[in-house]
């Protein structure tokens, strides 16, 4: 059974813009992205929105719906009251290109700053031998669809633009953790995580975990374990002493 | 880092929406409740620290255990009958030990989340703007000291085991005969279990058992321990609150029995 929903959508370019009100038809089983597409088709043909798979797997249609970062294609209209005004805005942490489309190149830049997987020089591809339990911990992080909602919601850069040069954000700190936990990665990533990627800026308030559409436990399984590894390296005299006495390699 | 003109220009390229948040749910409720819960806990802890009603029969008040002061600890409350702080120490015994479990909770990753959100509003809730103009996280003093958490864990683990020992002792009656089970016994046992679940589900414990390793398959016993700790860790928040409530209930109960306020037959 269809009904008319009240939508308030942010329209504008380069940051300048406003919230515009619309009344639009909603049918049973639809998601917010369907309604945005109906707006495009019937009322605002120039409304810009990025989307692709409509199945919650490409991470393209990240937006803020009633103030919360959500995937437009995975947010059911049935979760709202029929008389509720639904506010849709672009991701607030990134520059706006147009309407709901943001420039997320900050994330690509941070991705390039993370050194890639570095196996031992004497082990060739095809010679890696490891057990499932050695890699399954970091396999959780491979579920990431790069929707950048964790980056968007993290207050370190959301509320403080000036931290962007020093902080890579949860998505790329998770990538560093994934590589640091890999049995065949030989790069020392702990100091770099702290010094170059701003791990210590994270105050573990878990918003990244709350918004992750893949339900990755970013904070508990990546960021905090990485913080503990940094403590091993930088702040724990017992670990340092043990490494000297037993000549353990990091 | 000073905000430059160029960065300000970048900031202006974001969607300019002049409200703190567009959230329509009751996002403020969780920080308010957390603030109230932690505040009440601190108030109680402050009172309990100075209260000297420590021992009721075989029940020992958890906030004062281990009781280490000869002058202020009754004979039955001393750990293994031992009181390393002699008669010269006349202050409440809780003052000697509460810094350790207090420090453990203060530096705990869950509690950090809770008070950063509810007390410091950094941020108060997800996608709600924080009121601070600058933010450096845990990258400098004093918050860089949060990294001592694992040392507090070592001490808190010992105190957790002592509370378990106290719970076992509560199966004795006031004359020292085993077989007694009162309401206090049940409360102390439940409290000990919750405290152990909270303490050994800690992120530092998870790291120490095997989290620091990259080859789990080479350390099967440590991997098994990590798996168990991970199960507790997944409910760390719940255990943090449950153990906080249980320790207040257990402590208050013992003190009220000791003061004679609670005096029914199966107390």
UniProtKB/TrEMBL annotation, chain A:
One GO BP: respiratory electron transport chain
Keywords per UniProt: 2Fe-2S, 4Fe-4S, Iron, Iron-sulfur, Metal-binding, Oxidoreductase
Cofactor(s) it depends on: [4Fe-4S] cluster; [3Fe-4S] cluster; [2Fe-2S] cluster
Pathway(s) this gene product operates in, as recorded in its UniProt entry: Carbohydrate metabolism; tricarboxylic acid cycle
Record-annotated 2Fe-2S ferredoxin-type domain positions: 5-92
GO MF annotations, alphabetized: 2 iron, 2 sulfur cluster binding; 4 iron, 4 sulfur cluster binding; electron transfer activity; metal ion binding; oxidoreductase activity
Iron-sulfur keyword on record: yes
One GO CC term, this protein: plasma membrane
UniProt-listed NCBIfam families: dhsB, PRK12386.1
Family under the similarity heading: Belongs to the succinate dehydrogenase/fumarate reductase iron-sulfur protein family.
Protein name, per record: Succinate dehydrogenase/fumarate reductase iron-sulfur subunit
Gene source species: Microbispora triticiradicis
UniProtKB/TrEMBL annotation, chain B:
Ranges that cross the membrane: 27-50, 88-111, 151-172, 178-200, 239-258
Domain of life according to the entry: Bacteria
Keywords, sorted A to Z: Membrane, Transmembrane, Transmembrane helix
Protein name: Succinate dehydrogenase
Organism this protein belongs to: Microbispora triticiradicis
